[in-house]
Write a structure and sequence with these properties.
Keywords: ATP-binding, DNA damage, DNA repair, DNA-binding, Helicase, Hydrolase, Nucleotide-binding. The structure is a single chain. The chain is α/β, with parallel strands linked by helices. The protein has four domains: 99 residues, no CATH class; 97 residues, Nucleic acid-binding proteins (OB fold (Dihydrolipoamide Acetyltransferase, E2P), Beta Barrel); 189 residues, Rossmann fold (3-Layer(aba) Sandwich); 157 residues, Rossmann fold, CATH 3.40.50.300. Helices cover 39% and strands 18% of the residues. It contains 24 helices and 22 strands. It has a seven-stranded parallel sheet, with helices on both faces. 42% of the residues are buried. The C terminus is likely disordered. Bound molecules: adenosine-5'-diphosphate and magnesium ion.
Length: 692
């Protein structure tokens, strides 16, 4: 239940003065449906209104003057403006008003009355000083209405910044003093103001500097937000820990399967398996993420855990976002497991009729121990004999409900996620705060690095020629066209054009996949490529994460400068899987900005996905919301991923401490923290987005 103290902030925006049926939808679009959302708007700049006299006016500056009204000049034709002459001790100025209200001017500002005016002044040469539509024009008694430093808010058509500011000021007046939810010692050390003081400063900046992300009030608000989120995640983690789950020990079976593999585990794989086994043996539900580049060996690690589960009499479901990925996982693990008597089935949307019924029977009876598949795995008529572990590949591609439906097929099912999307270490907590993370940051030996080079678009013909030669000698290549315009149709056209062009130079073995195709049609083309029947695959959308085509050795990416680095890294990871030399060509539209050049350069220099993700974040300076969202960064209001990254770790530590000491949030600070969580809506429900 929402604490009473928050009621005024969760009232609808229509409760603000001046927000009626016309304005409400605009304000909702800009901020959100409740007063809190208006309170949380941030000014993006400030206007300094310098007090001045007319003789000290500066052309183009925003200034405030104390003047007396001298006379009015009515327009001769209605398309012309009204003019009003004013003066102070030092000179004259003309105020200019367009529009039809001019006739009321004289009533509102009679000759000889005193006014404080503020706005942009312009020097009109022989016509003297002029101000078009002053921002403010008030009686001397109301001079306080004109801020010397005015925060400027985002606006939208029909809702100008100054009107938005009026609503923000009123929202601020509704904000109560809150019980302090932060640790006092920490507040002092960081010199953080109280919550309300922080908001007052946010909306009443004393200058540019107050807009800075590192100013104490901005850091305080960001820390509040981060703590609310980290708390929700720590709570979820603790809740899962409290659920008893099957205790599963390391098995001889798994060790036999491992001994049969034609390779030894890397150190990183060993560590990941050790982590998983510790979780499985603890008697609590596991929630672990194994993170590592494509091909780093996550699936075989998961396979060993599946063998442990099978040896203990349980079943595992391995779910992948696409059919082709599911099939590849199946191909990786089925034979090694089956060789030691662990039954594995593949279940996808393609299974129909009697064959499907047979597979379902085998699952329900416990005749098979592992089911690999797609969404088909959690359909209502799929039942397990004893599901004890769910492994989800690229979990962010699934909805929470979908993952839960899968886990609901057993009791207290251990959860293991696998992800090949590199995320900078500093942001890990914001994305995976409620999972334990094992990183596989070491590649299996014997992989040849991918020779990477950047080339300007005008040299594309050269690339095509080289590609033709490579294909003639049996190579396979990906050719990626980015989504660049707003319109998917024109992007598709560009890709179709490229595919057509390559067909004419290379021949009929050029295929095309794009976002408008049905998943089945996409899978079919991908499969043709994987089986070697296509030599070049042109793709508009990112090639399915994790698809393994060992024979593919060339990756061409058009307009590479438009991709996030992590994404480029993942794309490049599609090649270089075998022992043959591989190449990646990053085509760009010249000229490249200095930052763009640096970004592409990193890819040439390193193959470490985490380092790349981290550097990308630094270079982007946090501005690229889209790239961040792709890596799973939450949609925070006050937190900036770069500027506030030190706070992320601190909030994570704090949340762990709090939940450790006061799991029910029952202490005085605990109660205040509940208010904080409600304030930011980062309650368990929201955190659900992030985990199984
Ligand atoms: P991921 O799931 O991280 O993409 P996989 O587990 O599917 O990686 O492994 C990719 C390929 O590399 C598979 O063919 C697998 O057999 C092989 N592989 C895995 N671990 C090693 C290793 N330590 N040494 C050599 N090859 C390995
Ligand atoms: Mg894999």
């Amino acid at each position: 239940m929402r604490p009473e103290i928050l009621f005024p902030l969760f009232a609808p925006v229509t409760s603000l003065k001046g927000v009626g049926p016309r304005v409400a939808p605009l304000l909702e679009k800009l901020a959100g449906p409740v007063v809190r959302d208006v309170l949380f708007l941030k000014p993006h700049t400030v206007i300094r209104r310098t007090p001045a006299t007319i003789s000290t006016a500066l052309d183009g500056e925003v200034m405030t003057f104390e003047v007396t009204v001298e006379s009015f000049q009515k327009p001769r034709v209605h398309t012309q403006p009204w003019r009003m002459r004013v003066f102070d001790q030092t000179g004259f100025m003309t105020l200019v008003f367009f529009g039809s209200f001019g006739s009321q001017l004289e009533q509102r500002h009679p000759v000889n009355s005193q006014r404080i005016i503020s706005g942009k002044v312009e020097n009109q040469g022989s016509f003297g000083w002029q101000m078009v539509h002053p921002d403010y024009m008030v009686e001397p008694g109301k001079a306080g209405d004109i801020p010397e430093v005015e925060p400027v808010y985002p606006a939208t058509a029909g809702l100008p910044p100054r009107t938005v500011r009026k609503f923000v000021v009123e929202a601020l007046s509704r904000a109560p003093e809150m019980p302090e939810w932060q640790d006092r010692a920490w507040l002092e050390r960081e010199r953080f103001p109280s919550w309300r003081e922080a908001l007052e400063r946010l909306h009443g900046p004393q200058g540019e500097a107050d807009l800075g992300l590192q100013s104490p009030h901005a850091r305080r608000l960001a820390f509040d937000e981060l703590l609310a989120h980290q708390l929700a995640m720590a709570q979820r983690k603790a809740e899962r820990r409290r659920e008893p789950a099957a205790r599963i020990g390391p098995s001889e079976l798994a060790e036999k399967i491992r001994a049969d593999l034609p390779f030894a585990f890397t150190g990183a794989q060993e560590r990941a398996l050790t982590d998983i086994r510790r979780d499985l043996g603890a008697g609590e539900r596991m929630s672990r993420l194994v993170q590592g580049d494509v091909g780093s060996g996550k699936t075989v690690v998961a396979m060993c855990a599946m063998a442990d589960v099978a040896a203990a009499g349980g079943q595992t479901a391995l779910m992948a976002p696409t059919e082709i990925l599911a099939r590849q996982h199946y191909e990786t693990i089925a034979a090694p497991l089956a060789a030691h008597g662990v039954g594995v089935i593949l279940l996808t949307g393609r299974d129909k009729g009697a064959a499907r019924a047979e597979k379902l029977r085998a699952l329900a009876s416990g005749a098979v121990q592992v089911a690999v598949g797609t969404h088909a795995l959690f359909q209502d008529d799929v039942a397990f004999h004893r599901l004890e572990m769910a492994v989800v590949d690229e979990q962010h591609r699934f909805g929470v409900a979908e993952r839960q439906r899968l886990q609901a097929k057993g009791e207290a099912v251990h959860f293991l996620a696998m992800s090949a999307t590199p995320i900078p270490r500093t942001l890990e907590l914001t994305v995976y705060g409620d999972l334990d993370v094992s990183r596989i940051d070491e590649k299996p030996p014997g992989r040849t690095p991918v020779a990477t080079r950047a080339m300007p678009m005008p040299r594309v013909a050269e690339v095509e020629t080289r590609l033709r030669e490579a294909v003639a000698s049996g190579a396979q290549a990906f050719w990626i066209c980015p989504l660049v315009s707003e319109s998917e149709v024109s992007d598709l056209k560009a890709a179709e054009k490229r595919a057509g062009e390559l067909k004419s130079t290379i021949g009929p073995s050029v295929g095309l996949v794009h976002g408008k195709m049905t998943p089945a049609a996409k899978d079919a083309v991908m499969a043709e490529f994987a089986e070697g029947r296509l030599s070049v695959l042109v793709a508009t959308t990112v090639v399915e994460v994790g698809v393994n085509v060992p024979n593919a050795t060339i990756m061409v990416i058009e307009q590479a400068e438009r991709f996030g680095l992590a994404q480029l890294h993942q794309l490049r990871g599609r090649v270089g899987r075998g022992r043959r030399e591989s190449a990646c060509v990053l085509l760009y539209d010249p000229p490249l900005s200095e930052t763009a050049q640096k970004r592409l350069d990193i890819l040439r220099r390193t193959d470490d996905g985490f380092l790349i993700a981290e550097t990308d974040l630094e270079l982007r300076g946090g501005g690229d919301a889209l790239g961040l969202r792709q890596s799973g960064f939450p949609d925070y209001v006050f937190t900036d991923p770069i500027a506030h990254r030190d706070l992320i770790a601190a909030a994570g530590d704090d949340a762990r401490l709090i939940i450790g000491r006061d799991p029910e949030l029952a202490s005085e600070r605990g109660l205040a923290l509940r208010v904080l969580q409600e304030l930011f809506d980062w309650k368990a429900g929201m955190a659900l987005k992030d985990a199984g």
